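During the second year of the project, the team shifted from modelling isolated chains to modelling whole assemblies. The rationale, set out in the original proposal, was that interfaces cannot be judged from single-chain predictions alone. As a representative example for this report, we include one of the complexes processed in the last quarter. Its constituent sequences, exactly as entered into the pipeline, are reproduced here:
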Amino acid sequence: GQNIDQPTEMTATEGAIVQINCTYQTSGFNGLFWYQQHAGEAPTFLSYNVLDGLEEKGRFSSFLSRSKGYSYLLLKELQMKDSASYLCAVLNNAGNMLTFGGGTRLMVKP
Amino acid sequence: NAGVTQTPKFQVLKTGQSMTLQCAQDMNHEYMSWYRQDPGMGLRLIHYSVGAGITDQGEVPNGYNVSRSTTEDFPLRLLSAAPSQTSVYFCASSYEGTQNEKLFFGSGTQLSVL
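Output from the structure prediction step:
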């Protein structure tokens, strides 16, 4: 099975940097995804990591350490529109089931 | 481009009633799935399909049935609704399984069972 942990809530200031952590214990691993979900809307894809290291995409970066079962999502130059939930999800070995963590609700304040 | 279309957006049922949540995609995706989302519990996989004629159970399949007669459609059936099935339901698809490929989500169905 999969066990995925993320902080429930975080608060940060507009213009700042925030790091959202995700730890996982899984029986199999075939990659880790981050999704963004605004309140009342569907999740949308942010990033995918399957190898160790940092993937950078504009203001957002995602890091993975497979040996530590650890990932983080880094958001730079925070904007008010970044207020949303951020979902960490792990793909199983067969590549056919994605298991989500409970999500981290990020509030960006002026 | 329609993407993933879910209907209805809102539904209220009485305990014991049956209904079908519809999901259709126009991206020729092989992989389709249904999730439910409850406060504090994230998204949980109900059923998934890797292609027409093939379905499999996810994490929380009890009380739900699915079928995949065409590539485009993946309906979710509640045979006898229970209050525990009150949730937001999302349908999602990707081209060829989820490996390396992001899921595209529908806009969701908010279901209340009284």
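The mean pLDDT of chain A is 95. Chain A touches chain B through 25 residues (CB under 8 Å).
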